[in-house]
Amino acid sequence: MSPSTTKTVLVTGANGYIGSAVTRSFVRAGWRTYGLTRKESAISTLAAQEAIPILSSPSDTTFISKLKDDNVTFDVLVSVTEDINNYIPHYTAIISMLRELALACKEKGVRPLVLFTSGCKDYGMSPYLADSPGLEPHTEESPINPPPFAADRAKYSLKTFEHTDLFDAAVLRPTNVYGYDSSFYGFVFQFAEQAAEAGVLEINEEKKTILHSMHVDDCGDAYVALAEHYLTKPRDVAGQVFNISASVYETLEDIAAALVKEYGIPGGVKWGKDDSEGPATNFRRMVMGYSQWVGSEKIRKMTEWKDKRRLFSEDIDVHRRAYEVVAAKGQAKTQTLLIRK
User: Fold this and answer.
1) Using one digit for the tens of pLDDT, what is the confidence trace for 244-272?
2) Structural domains of the chain, ranges and CATH numbers in brackets
3) HSE of 331 in the Cβ direction (CA atoms, 13 Å)?
4) What is the pTM of this model?
């Protein structure tokens, strides 16, 4: 911990969807917050959020010497960046950077906490739908069983615990997130717009699919809750995995009904089944057909963190307007990654 009374954090990927929310949350909580970004266009946004921008990347660590000259040390280092299709090289670069940062902190007598972001899909899909007997949430004790696209992440994120010579670490597994410029759920709005033109919302997935997500601001606040808990009780956090999720889940049926009402789709929902394969189908299935209930009692009991925002389907009008404003400006961060099989 820093001998200074000022709490200081560095967030990598600070201009990303989750990264920007994490950055905002630390700023609101009173931390001196540095945001690492490789995009020059993000500098002004980070500055406007009262974060301290650093223009660099994990493969260019020359910025660390400048931080040392300025006598900057970090209580917490947050990694919120990944290249899912090229995971191992990116992970290696991130860890190398985190080690270099932690070494600089060690020279000043500070041992930082690394909050490393993975994801709840590391557990794989739930074997049951919302109306199935025996349904239980994935917890931090659940076995790892990722789909192929997340296999490297599930494996290598846990390797972060191997660097205790320089830093403590916790691995975080958030669910999908929504809000503002909408990320994966931007696809849902695009899907609904097309359905409104066609007159019917055709969904080729199981209606009781569990879509457990959370507002991105709640997700950011969970990172802060863990960081602040660590400052007083480091042993509670170090070496642990934490799920981050809303207190309740919604189903695809819930979201479909909200979309029909919001977009005035006259033909309602037409449920079907599609066993075809291909990038577009796989992406749709990952957004709308990946059934998973994720428990987050561990972080709730430890830190008293709780989600505050309403479910996506409950505030769909609010999220639609927010998405359309940024989409009109060409700034929506709709996830267009075509998931590998």
Assistant:
1) 999 999 999 999 999 999 999 999 999 99
2) 8-125+136-175+216-245+293-309 (3.40.50.720)
3) 13
4) 0.94
